[in-house]
Specification:
- By secondary structure, this protein is mostly helical.
- It folds into two domains: about 1-70; about 70-165, Tetratricopeptide repeat domain (Serine Threonine Protein Phosphatase 5, Tetratricopeptide repeat).
- It is built from six helices and no strands.
- The chain has helices spanning about 5-25, 30-70, 75-90, 95-110, 115-130, 135-160.
- Helix 2 (about 30-70) packs antiparallel against helix 3.
- The longest helix has about 40 residues, at about 30-70.
- The two termini are about 35 Å apart.
């Protein structure tokens, strides 16, 4: 985390503290500045929570990247499932960030030989086609992933010595 982020978090925390203190014990009754201070406290609290949620998401993404670099794809898959679920709950199934992470999830499932990798990729391709259009580069990347996964399945069916797909 950079110094600039720490500075902003400290400023937000300080402002939230001041706002809460102005509401706790007003001497002359509830006045407009106390209400404004309380609202500022609520807004600052929301900003702090947002910063913390963002930091947690960034650390999760960092973990996925470290797992992939280290070849620990099962751990990366677990983190990717959480990332996709969180993004779906916040932005929806057709949000570009959700579709980006669902693509990574399908790709990782495919590398691990999971049977549902193609289904995940097809769902993502459908969403990207509806949202971005058939000619968009992300849609084309999803189409290539579907083609690659289908070819991998066909190769595994053609060679009887390959291990069965995992779930």
């Amino acid at each position: 985390m950079g110094n600039r982020t720490r500075t902003w978090e400290a400023i937000i925390f300080f402002l939230a503290t001041l706002a809460v203190l102005s509401v706790v014990a007003p001497e002359g009754g509830l006045q407009a500045e106390h209400v404004a201070g309380g609202l500022a406290g609520v807004v600052c609290y929301g900003l702090v929570r947002s910063c913390l949620a963002r930091r947690a998401a960034i650390s999760r993404v960092d973990r996925v990247q470290r797992y992939v670099r280290a070849g620990e794809l099962e751990k990366a898959l677990t983190e990717l499932r959480v990332i996709v679920a969180e993004n779906e709950s916040v932005g929806g199934t057709k949000h570009p960030i959700t579709m980006y992470w669902r693509h990574a999830l399908a790709q990782t499932k495919g590398e691990l030989g999971h049977a549902d990798a193609l289904n995940t990729a097809k769902v993502n391709l459908t969403y990207r086609t509806e949202t971005l259009g058939a000619g968009h580069r992300d849609t084309l990347a999803s189409q290539r992933l579907c083609d690659d996964l289908l070819a991998k399945i066909q190769r595994s069916l053609a060679s009887p010595s390959s291990p069965p797909a995992r779930r």
